[in-house]
Structures
1.
Amino acid sequence: MEEIEQVAQSAGNWAADLLQTEIYNGKSLADYLTFDALITLTTSIVGALVIILLGIIVSGFIGRRIKRMAERHKSLDDTLFAFLGNIARYTILGFTALFVLNTFGVQTTSIIALIGAAGLAVGLELQGTLSNVAAGVMIIFFRPLKLGDFVDVDGVMGTVKNITLNYTEIADLGNVKVVVPNSEVWGNRIKNYSSYPTRRAEWTFGVGYGANLAKAEEVIRDTIMADERAHADPEPFFQVNNLGSSSVDFLVRVWCDTDAYFQFQADMKRKVKEALDAADVNIPFPTRTLVHENPVVNLSDRQADKSDAKQDIAAE
């Protein structure tokens, strides 16, 4: 019985010591196990759950509202407002987490400092990825390209399908998906063929040296300007630009809508060729004259000489 009493006494002493052990902010476990402490803890938990619920609802609502602004106003960029919506949403969720920690009496200053130090360490390890993110932010804010633009980026030509913080997705001319890291997009020259509403189409048409140049120019001008896609303003350019080895070349420059550029340029090549043919204007093709140092001997004459030689030999 004495041994049992000793064990019970030891357990009681251990429990008493445990209850008096300091846990947080100078308070022991016994302080937290009081009725008032349990009420306070329950209140903190309920308050934290309410804060989390409100944070999720408010962050989702504000994020969606910002994104829908671009949908209602066509002049606003979808990618930019989607990015801003996500930034607003995660910012609110971050503050929600801090409020929850404050509800339990946790000092958030040290946690913020710890997160900052961890962020610095992670940033040093992920320099390449973070450079893509930084470039993605620059692309989204300065908008050198946007969804649907036809661009040439680092030698890749195609239509922009998606822009994220890490990469830009382009569908090339063969409708093949090409993913370009944002650091390469931002760090290289970008040709955006869709930025301006109009473009200048350019052609070179050659006619023969014996052709009537005034007539040829009139046929070219009338054919192109009769197309509804050709703009009269700015003024079109039709001039003889080069005297080639076998042709007189006209340089033609006419403005058109950007959306119609490629088809307009292709159609005019065929229409101008057909119009020149109908007007009987000669369209030359390159020719080459060969001059031999030794005279060319007719094959029949050479065979006749061989037969005469054979007859002379036979006669001898």
2.
Amino acid sequence: MTEDLTRSTVTAQQEAIEEQKEREEERAFRAAPQLNKSPLHGLWALTNRDLVKWYKNPIQLFISLIQPIVWLGLFGKAFNITGIFASQPGVTQAELNTINLGTFGTTSYFSYLGAGMLAFIIMFTAAFAGMSVVWDRRFGFMNKALSTPVGRGAIVTGKVMQSVIRSLIQAAIVLVIAVALGMDTTNFSILTVGGSFVMLFLMTFGLSSLFVMLALRSSDWQTQMAVINLLNLPLLFASNAMLPVRIMPSWLQSVVKFNPVSYAVDGVRQLLLGSGSASAAAAGYNILAPLWVDFAVLAGFAALLSVLGIVLSWKLLTK
């Protein structure tokens, strides 16, 4: 009798201990962090991954920061068209300012080129957005990302966003250097600078989407580099980034009007340099389009390329 009572007591204690353990495990499970399936969480995780690789690599970070200084400091000052006008005998400063205002929409070619350099550095940074897709595919990370709950559209958008952030940082550095080297700041304000970076954001979003889209099925970095070289220089030279449209051949002027880079540069110049002012128009300078048209073209370009990239990722981005 006593043994049966003792045995039942031990059994009851064991059951109580097991129940206590089960309750503790259930509480621990409920307290554990749940898997965040939000598209924004996955988007930021992928974007931040590429940004961390960028700013934690000292050599890559140094090159990306020194590149704008080299381009603007050496190329910008060496390519001095204003000096050609000034070297002519008998040309006064007032006449030189009138010539520059009618040709470039500002009294300094360096200021004209500085605004073009903002688009130039963004274009080359955006072109390498697709290379990240190629390397992720080659080293197997893309297969791992495709196995997660993160959507294919978020993967593509993450690649685009890291390129946009890097491009805008470099553009800000270029602008600071350009001002330090003598860029005209008469029209600078929070509104004009902010509006300019909105335009640059739209341009780099569209271009980054384009280059990522072209790399969706590529695993060969040489092919992607060939695509970059094929598109970058035509986009640059068939625009108003370096030279006014009015001095180009008539057939090239028509091409410039279909280049989204031209509208970004034109809008930035109107905002930062006042190239759309009445004085510039009176001197003979012609803007490419009204400011609202520049915004509309860039917004449509960014929306079209981003949507197209996401749609194509559903079909082309596979393991």
3.
Amino acid sequence: MEKHLIFYLMFVPSLLLFFWGMWLRISVYLQGTLEGAEDATHGKKLKIFLKRGWRGFWARPGWYIKVLVRDVIFHKKLFGQSFYRWLAHTLLVFGFFATFIVDMIKGFTTGYLVELSHTFPILSFAHVFETGAIRPFLDFFLEFFSFLILIGCVLAIVRRFILRPDQLRTEEEDIVTLLFILFLEISGFFIEGFRIAHPEVVASKVYLANFTPASANNWISFGGYFVSLFLRGIRMDANFLWYFHVVPCLIWFVYIPHSKLLHIFTSSVTVFADRSKQTKIPQEGTIINVKTSTEKNFCLTKNFIVDNECVQNHK
């Protein structure tokens, strides 16, 4: 069976399970009451919240972007508490954000626009992302940001299992999450190193990609190139390695809504709530009580987010 088809047969169900898991978690928050729509379904409440959030963002996009970068991704508050924790957190969060953005650009241009360009010549510019001057930089930044994630993960593991500060509690979920991330990063560099060490793997297109010239691997794929130095005399089934990395990636993707990794999303909401309070946004209007049975309560409103209660401004 063609490898692209195999991938999508695995990816589509994984994507559906991810959204299903996210909906289960979001529905917990939607158990709160919304004035004027007390009997609304969860779907209706979500639609209202998203609409207000969308309007609130476009009312002050600069403020939201500033808070996202300064307080969510680079966690300014944590920097003042512990440089070590801040460094591990920033490498992980920034690494994931940056990797996601670059991977989406690469996947959309090389996976879709290039194919469509055969039918619509106007899209032929996309080939620069596949084999042109832009491709080496996409590959380099993917390598670099993945390396940041690996370093951040190692720092987190050292702090949790070696340094073990007194106030830190380690649960099974923490262990699973960190080891999962560590495995995905190491296996990714391993199969990349195997690909570089064995040019025939590229020729057979086992890994579903066009690659930059081998002469550039030492700086573009610096992590994989280092690993390749130890794999040139080793023979393995390249297809097995592909599944060995891709299947756990999809399992991890499905696992996110049910793990502590969800706090990447929920903590962002809390940060926007706290910063909204600090900027003393006018709180005129109707108070909407939000009470849920699990996790920290939050709500999304037209202009801002606050814990345990929403304040809707009338305009």
4.
Amino acid sequence: MRRFEPMKVFIHVFLFLCTLAVLLPLLNLLAVSLTDPAKAHLMDGLDLWPKQFSLFTYEVLLKNSLIAGGILNPVFITAAGTLLNLLLTTMAAYVIARNDFYGKGLVVLFLIVILVFEPGLIPEYLLVKELGLLNTYASLILFKGINVYYLFIMMRYFQDVPNELLEAARIDGAGHLRIYARIMLPLSKAGIATLGLFYGVFHWNEYFRSMIYISDQAKWPLQVVLRQFVIRQDNTTILGGYENMFGGQTVDFDALQAGTIIIAIVPLLLLYPMILKYYTKGAMEGGVKD
């Protein structure tokens, strides 16, 4: 007979309540965004089902050039930035973790100093301006090409690769590039997928530097549009002239805010399940010792 464990029950209940605390606001936002704008004002914070189903809110949002461009812009920035991050991070991790070279200790010390003392925003802005990267996607893609903390995580994955595999590859005539591409990367898929998720979420959610470096509204990521509309209550960003375009039909401001938030978080919600299997696999492999 199974013994009753109060602590395990408490943990499960606690995690269930935490899940509800995260899930219920999202369901409420989804319900508000799918409610007919004429009845959206009847929705309160506890409603989880639309009063009267309508896609009019998303029709308004997706026909807005800022929203449409705001979806495509961060997709490009996130994809390009994440690929660059993973390439630089894995190459640096291989060089430091699996090779001995003169001054390696100083390089590691320098990385630790960078990890603790990050450069300020003003020198960073002046550098971006000097390089002529203002108002370009490159200013966002190149930012933090290597996150030092993630670099150390990747180094740990590479250090777990058996030396015997590397020695056998060298005997077969493999050089550093072939070892890196054919051995290190395939055996570290879990770590790469995990860091890819971290880097991807960082790029997707980045709005502060987008506001500083990007002045052209057509290049704004969705997060900047979201800030203008939801945080600053700038309804002209989305609404200007839409009443006439849709024959004078009512447009609810709260429903538009909710729809914008849903559009901004859906890509991440779709990404997590695809990455989770690699993350779980890496955690299981790390917990099994010979």
